[in-house]
């Protein structure tokens, strides 16, 4: 399987690549990024680091022939590129929308023209994303609705592809990671105070998404509990390549 990964230098993207390099059925891991993506630390002893290749993307809205050639024949993409709620305050919202929405919609469109069929596109949003664009939300409403709009467009693109593209949305809660403590957004902080924000470890997110990319999409949307459940199916064998 040829796997594409965006947001490859982030917390989840790094873990995805670390795990993927140790999965024998994944023969190629292509990281789309603005700079070279290095092999993560603590890869499994049997990991094949030669599978990792970086493709530099200068324009995320229209891929060059060189980028398309490099991703040609891909079987799946884990889309992790986004501006998080916490970091969004440093940008004007139009830029946040451009990165989160425009880049994602362009990505599924451009990738699907050269990918294998069916092409599995797994988009990661967040636990409090809202698809209903008519709702009025008090807490980070503009951001949450925008991420919901991305979900709507990704799923619509797949449904209109006549089976050429299969799409899935994942909605992790507060993400824990080795040596990082609990990574929480502004949404997570407020929600945690109310006791409603679920938690998940970064290794669980990565394991669940890789399992779905490889074995097939279980359903349209994976909530935090689904990610934890699916990860147990993978991590329950005691394989040491997954760092908890």
TrEMBL record:
Superkingdom of source: Eukaryota
InterPro entries, alphabetized: NAD(P)-bd_dom, NAD(P)-bd_dom_sf
Gene3D superfamilies per UniProt: NAD(P)-binding Rossmann-like Domain (3.40.50.720)
NAD(P)-binding domain segment(s): 7-129
Descriptive protein name: Nucleoside-diphosphate-sugar epimerase
Organism: Mytilinidion resinicola
């Amino acid at each position: 399987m040829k796997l594409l990964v965006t947001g490859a230098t982030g917390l989840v993207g790094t873990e995805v690549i670390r795990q993927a390099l140790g999965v024998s059925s994944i023969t190629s891991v292509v990281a789309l990024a603005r700079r070279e993506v290095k092999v993560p630390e603590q890869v499994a002893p049997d990991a094949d680091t030669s599978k990792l290749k970086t493709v530099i993307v200068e324009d995320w809205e229209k891929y060059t022939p060189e980028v398309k050639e490099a991703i040609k024949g891909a079987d799946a993409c884990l889309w992790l590129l986004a501006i998080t709620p916490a970091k969004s305050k440093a940008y004007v919202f139009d830029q946040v929308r451009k990165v989160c929405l425009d880049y994602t919609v362009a990505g599924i469109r451009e990738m699907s023209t050269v990918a294998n069929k069916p092409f599995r596109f797994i988009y990661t949003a967040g636990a409090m994303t809202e698809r209903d664009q008519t709702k009025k939300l008090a807490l980070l409403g503009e951001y949450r609705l925008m991420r919901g709009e991305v979900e709507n467009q990704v799923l619509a693109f797949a449904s209109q592809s006549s089976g050429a593209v299969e799409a899935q949305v994942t909605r992790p809660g507060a993400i824990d990671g080795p040596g990082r403590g609990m990574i929480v957004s502004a949404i997570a902080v407020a929600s945690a105070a109310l006791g409603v924000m679920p938690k998940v470890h970064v290794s669980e997110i990565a394991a669940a998404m890789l399992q779905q990319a490889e074995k097939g999409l279980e359903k349209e949307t994976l909530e935090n509990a689904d990610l934890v459940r699916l990860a147990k199916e993978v991590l329950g064998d005691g394989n040491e390549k997954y760092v908890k």
